[in-house]
Amino acid sequence: MNTQSNPAIAPALQQFYLLRELCDRLESLQAAIVGFDLAGIEHQSAQQLAICAELRALQPPAPESESERGAPRILAAASPAGVTPLGGSIARLAARAHYNGRVCSSLLRRAQRTNGIFLRLLAGAAATYTPAQNLFSAASRKA
């Protein structure tokens, strides 16, 4: 693709590559969450933060009326004839990244619920099955 003919293509192409990398990282994060790989989760999260910072730098400033949780803005790869196929690919990648983010969020919530169940189980079992400390010392004194 010739980026010299249209200056809007270069940032859009960079956004395309960053969104594709973000999708890959989100899918790797899903595998790390399912596999309970804490180091993998931390690594993938750090990579995602770096990619999101790069994507944020590419975005034009948001109007003041736009809410913080609004739909993600997508750079349009405009040509004299209108939006190029790159703009459609960017939109599909943004939708895929959004979906993968939601899947990761649900997997993290499930892992959090599982941890909560185990913690409550351990807390309840600790009081029930803890042996009395003075049981043997009291029996030996009576004898």
Task: Please provide a brief summary of the model.
The chain has helices at residues 9-34, 38-58, 85-129, 135-142; strands at 78-79, 82-83.
Describe the structure.
- The protein has 143 residues and is mainly α.
- It has a domain at 7-60 and 92-129.
- Helices cover 70% and strands 3% of the residues.
- The chain has helices spanning 9-34, 38-58, 85-129, 135-142, and strands spanning 78-79, 82-83.
- The chain has a two-stranded antiparallel ribbon with strand order 1-2.
- Strand 1 and strand 2 (82-83) form a beta hairpin.
- Helix 1 packs parallel to helix 3.
- The protein is rod-shaped.
- The model is unreliable at 75-82 (pLDDT under 50).
Termini gap: 93 Å
* Approximate strand percentage: under 5%
Tell me, rounded to a whole number, the average pLDDT. Answer: 79
- N-to-C SSE series? HHEEHH
Uncertain runs are 75-82
Instruction: Tell me the Rg in angstroms.
Output: 26 Å
Q: How much helix is in the residues? A: 55-70%
